[in-house]
Amino acid sequence: MQIGVWIEDDRPLAAVVADVEKAARLGFARAWFGQRTGWDPLTLIASVGDRAPGIGLGTAVALTWPHHPLALAAQALTTQAAIGGRLTLGIGPSHQVIVESRYGYPWTRPGQHVEDHLAILAPALAGEAVDVRAATVTAAGAVTVPDVARPPLLLAAHGPRLLRLAGERADGVITTWSGPRGLAEHVVPQVRAAAAGRPDPQVVVGVVASLTHDPDAARAYVAETFGMAGELPSYRLSMDQQGFAGPADTVLAGDEATLEKAVRRFADAGATEFQLCAVGPPAERARTVAFFGELARALPRA
Question: What distance in Å separates the CA atoms of residue 158 and residue 104, rounded to the nearest whole number?
Answer without folding.
Answer: 24
